[in-house]
Amino acid sequence: MSEKAAKVGRGLSLLSGGLDSQLAICILREQGLHMEAVVFKSPFFKIESAKSAALDMGVKLHVVSFTRDILELIKDPPHGFGGNLNPCIDCHALMIKRAGEMMRSMGFDFVATGEVLNQRPMSQRRVALEIVAQSSELGDRLVRPLSALLLEPTQPELDGIIDRSQLLRLNGRGRRPQMELAKKFGLKSYPSPSGGCLLTESGFCRRLNDMRNRGALDDERLVWMLLYGRHLALPGGGKCIVGRDNRDNAALKQARQLEDVMIHTVNIPGPTVLLPLGGTPADIELAASICASYGDHGGAHEVMVRIHQGEHTLEQSAPVVNRELFKEMIL
Ligand code: SF4
User: Fold this and answer.
1) Whose CA is nearest to atom 2 of ligand 1?
2) Residue 129 pLDDT
3) Please, what is the average pLDDT of the chain?
4) What separation in Å is there between the alpha carbon of 255 and the centre of ligand 1?
5) Who's near 218: CB < 8 A, 6+ residues apart?
6) By three-state DSSP, how is residue 37 classified?
7) pTM, to two decimals
8) With a 6 A CB cut-off, is 42 part of the ligand 1 pocket?
9) Cα separation of 199 and 208, whole Å?
């Protein structure tokens, strides 16, 4: 056997935790390659599935922050959005580009993904796969083991690091071959292929789009706050976030900075209300009334609230009104 053929190749695979990304790793490992995985973290994608999949498979997982990257794409994605604020082609290309940078700095031979040709209408058509390969600047070091036999051979295949004959020719939306492979490799836990990214959910994207329109996407703290509470646009131009439960309330309290105004009820259970970056006096009065009205007021007309503004704390009575009046303000 030549020295080249004897080399154990090292691959870095994108791992979402979904079945296809797990299979890509299994297929490459089956031929003796050393595989590690990377998952990209941001407010929009949960990484728990990737973590548990990596644990189940015994694969080392690298967790890489992607928040700044994805926010820049949401401002102006070169290849546009999918159905909501999901810039899938550019998002995917940038993740692969970041994985490519890791490949070079950490001594991997290639980057792998679980992409399947024609599985998704926007991001996995042949032309989209080519755009992703080009934009990611990874070129022929990007391996898609599930559809490799329908694509041009990559450099690690030509170099004999990867045995092309053991790669697959999956095509389209059918899931049966994947389910059979899952059985073969003993994979039991994987989320549905479509779920998981908040950028594909219209309710969440309404709130995110409000931030985008306000030019506020550079403030990562405010973007993380989109994960908590009801968001209401206030007439004076600010917005307030109303905690829906203890988890939201605790998160809002923890996120509060001195420039934010925070309001909560004094003598009754009620929400924490946060006005990020403060608000006009009229907006703060309205937010106090919102806080009172979402509290457990038992039919009272007024409720005591505590308003924290800068270093100062003020207690005052706030009117309880019908919550229907706030409906139009909800983002
Ligand atoms: S679904 Fe979300 S995470 Fe996946 S490529 Fe699209 S924008 Fe990126």
Assistant:
1) 197
2) 87
3) 93
4) 26
5) 71
6) strand
7) 0.88
8) no
9) 9
